[in-house]
Write a structure and sequence with these properties.
Serine Threonine Protein Phosphatase 5, Tetratricopeptide repeat; 16 helices; 67% helix
C-alpha cells in the first residue's frame, strides 16, 4: 500500500484514533493491543478485510480503519497488520512507526504471516530494533511456512545469502519456487536467473525462459528485458530482433536501466518496416495483471 494523504474530515481521527479501539490502545500503552473477546467468524472477518482494502483504494480511510479493527475482533489477525500498515505509512492517520510495530506484534501473536514478515524485515534492516538476521530468519521463514509469498521470497533470500542460517541453495530454490507458484514476481525472476546461470540448479535455458515469460506477462521490466535479451542472442529461442525490440521497448517504458541502449543497439540492425511493426505491437501489448 502506498501512503495516502489524510483529508480534513479525518482530523479528529488523526489526533485520537477515536473510532478504532485497537489503534487507541496502541497509542496509549507500550504493549500489544487487546480487544474484548468476541466469537470468531472467519467468513465475516475475511469479508471485512476485503472491504477494508477496497475502502483504502477508494480513499475512505475512516471506513478502512473501522473494517480492519472489526476484522481483527472477528478473529482475522491480518486486521491488525493492515491497521499497522496504515499507521506506519500515515494512511488516514498520523504516521507512527512505534505504534505500528505494536499492531504488528499483536497481529503476529495471533498468527498473521504478513505481520511476521514485516517484523522480520525490521530485524533484517535494523529498523528501530536490533539488526538480527537470526530473528529475521525465524520470523520470515515461519511466515513462509504459513503460506505468505512475500515471506517465502524473503526466506529464500536469507538461505541464498547465508544470513541467519547457513547458506543453502537447495532451500533457497525451494522457497523461491513456493513464492513463484503464488505468482511472486521477484521469485519468478530469481528462478529465471538461477536456471539461466546454473545457480543452485542445473542450467536450463528453457526453464529460465518460462520464468521470465511469467514475470514479463505481469509487466515486470526485468522479465521483459531478459526475454528481449534471449531473442537478441538467439538462446534458447530462435534469434528474432523484432521480438527483442518489442520486449526491450516494453522494458524501457517501465524504466529498465539497460533497455534504451539495447533498443538503439538492435535498431541499427533492423529495417524501418520491422521497427515500425515492433512498435505497433508494443503499443497494443497489455500486461496480464
Amino acid at each position: 500500500m502506498r501512503p495516502l494523504i489524510a483529508s480534513a474530515a479525518l482530523a479528529a481521527l488523526v489526533s485520537g484514533f477515536a473510532c478504532t479501539p485497537l489503534l487507541a490502545q496502541a497509542q496509549k500503552q507500550p504493549e500489544a493491543p487487546k480487544t474484548a473477546p468476541v466469537k470468531n467468524n472467519p467468513a465475516v472477518a475475511a469479508d471485512k478485510i476485503k472491504a477494508g482494502l477496497k475502502a483504502l483504494d477508494d480513499k475512505k480511510f475512516e471506513e478502512a480503519l473501522k473494517l480492519f479493527n472489526e476484522a481483527f475482533a472477528a478473529g482475522n489477525a491480518d486486521g491488525a497488520f493492515y491497521l499497522g500498515r496504515m499507521v506506519e505509512l500515515g494512511v488516514g492517520v498520523q504516521g507512527d512507526f512505534d505504534k505500528a510495530r505494536i499492531l504488528y506484534l499483536a497481529a503476529s501473536e495471533k498468527g498473521s504471516a504478513k505481520a511476521m514478515n514485516r517484523l522480520g524485515l525490521m530485524h533484517y534492516r535494523g529498523e528501530k530494533v536490533l539488526q538480527d538476521y537470526k530473528v529475521a530468519q525465524e520470523l520470515m521463514c515461519k511466515a513462509a511456512d504459513l503460506g505468505d509469498a512475500d515471506a517465502a521470497f524473503n526466506c529464500a533470500g536469507l538461505f541464498a545469502e547465508g544470513k541467519g542460517v547457513p547458506k543453502d541453495m537447495d532451500k533457497a530454490i525451494h522457497w523461491y519456487a513456493k513464492a513463484a507458484d503464488a505468482g511472486h514476481i521477484g521469485a519468478l525472476n530469481a528462478l529465471g536467473f538461477a536456471y539461466r546461470d546454473g545457480i543452485g540448479v542445473k542450467s536450463d535455458l528453457a526453464k529460465s525462459q518460462s520464468y521470465f515469460e511469467k514475470a514479463a506477462a505481469k509487466g515486470n521490466p526485468i522479465g521483459l528485458f531478459e526475454l528481449g535479451a534471449m531473442f537478441e542472442l538467439g538462446k534458447p529461442v530462435a534469434r528474432d530482433l523484432a521480438k527483442a525490440h518489442l520486449y526491450y521497448n516494453l522494458a524501457a517504458a517501465r524504466q529498465h536501466p539497460g533497455a534504451s541502449l539495447a533498443i538503439q543497439r538492435i535498431s541499427s540492425q533492423m529495417s524501418t518496416a520491422d521497427i515500425a511493426s515492433a512498435q505497433d505491437k508494443a503499443r497494443a501489448w497489455k500486461a496480464s495483471e
